[in-house]
Amino acid sequence: MSTFAFTSLFQITVSSSSSSLHAIRASASEYVPSQHTLRREFLKGVAALMPLPLVVLIEPPPSDAREVEVGSFLPPSPSDPSFVLFKASAKDTPALRAGNVQPYKFILPPTWKQARVANILSGNYCQPKCAEPWVEVKFEDEKQGKVQVVASPLIRLTNKPNATIEDIGSPEKLIASLGPFVTGNTFDPEELLETSVEKLVLQIRARNTICSHRHTQSCKSNSKGKHCCFVCG
Hints:
The chain has helices at 35-49, 94-97, 119-122, 165-168, 171-183, and strands at 2-5, 10-15, 21-28, 56-58, 84-87, 105-108, 113-115, 134-141, 145-151, 201-206, 216-222, 225-231. With 233 residues, it is of the alpha+beta class. Strand 1 (2-5) and strand 2 form a beta hairpin. The radius of gyration is 31 Å and the shape is globular. It comes from Glycine soja. This is PsbP domain-containing protein 6, chloroplastic isoform B.
């Protein structure tokens, strides 16, 4: 506890503790020279104290993001132990807690760190009916860059209900729609270095039937029946 002189009668006493709340209050001195002096100094002290409000300082809550390398708390990837596997769960994002996004997972270099996502970017204020894209999670490395998962309501990309990825359009069209949100600035097509599309192929076996699907890639016949490989739409 430390004390600072305020007047000959009043002093400001600042008390603090290990808690997150700190308050400033006024306390009276025990020294009283005379009754007239007491009255005069009392009025002076009250006049000086009246403009001073009670000040409460609240320490901000700590960030939920871990400022440590992800390799210290994420398991190795089964497909490549030199990377770690991040599995998003309901405790990680507001959209997952609201059931607005299905769980997802991806691999990361073990030296990367998880970055804090600002509340205004996380969609926490608008779930489960957000009209704008939001950031799910973000990881970064000072030298290698950053990766973030951005989710967007379908209406932001197309007016077609139950649209497939093909209906939404090419990567270039998708980037043009979400690019300014991701970069925080006007998107310049010349800044795009490379795009790629990876199709996951699902194999279905059917006997003595003809397989068809709007995303059929190839069909082959053998003694056990007809095999069709297609991409789920």
